[in-house]
Amino acid sequence: MNPLHKNILKKLAVISISSTIFLTGTTAYIAPSVEAASSSRDRVISIGNQYLGTPYKFGAQFGVTSRFDCSSFTKWVYSRVGKTLKRASKDQARQGYFVPRSQLVKGDLVFFTTSSRSGISHVGIYAGNSRVLHTYGAGGVKYSSMKSGWWNSHYVTARRVL
């Protein structure tokens, strides 16, 4: 296809989308996707809550729900809402898009370093109110505060996948 035809098709697509938005109204057109994302975020937290107290086991196999490591937990929970995540936390940190810490919303993935190195080695689910739903060490799946202390000082980044 020559560049002139591509340009004409792009303009027709813009006109078509603009007409659809104008005829349906922007609120009716945009609201369903915003509502669906919010619902998915709440559902992720609800699903994660079902596993509170489930033991932590480094290297836990995906799909086994009697024990989790951090990334098998996030991969499992997100799979329940139809979102496929990679297996390792460092790979999950490359999915979705970057979110500044000041703009976190429920359901965002939050990443930490658990060693003296600066690389990502832990992932959890942001649950609102500066809390992370995750699994690590004693107690298994639990909530931890990101406001101060260890998790605050080991925070690396966040990604939005919903």
TrEMBL record:
All residue ranges annotated as the NlpC/P60 domain in the record: 38-162
GO molecular function, one term: cysteine-type peptidase activity
Name the record gives this protein: NlpC/P60 domain-containing protein
Keywords, comma-separated and alphabetical: Hydrolase, Protease, Thiol protease
A single BP term in Gene Ontology: proteolysis
InterPro entries per UniProt: NLP_P60_dom, Papain-like_cys_pep_sf, Peptidase_C40
Pfam families listed in its UniProt record: NLPC_P60
Keyword Protease applies: yes
Family: Belongs to the peptidase C40 family.
PANTHER family named among the record's database cross-references: MUREIN DD-ENDOPEPTIDASE MEPH-RELATED
Keyword Transcription included in the entry's annotation: no
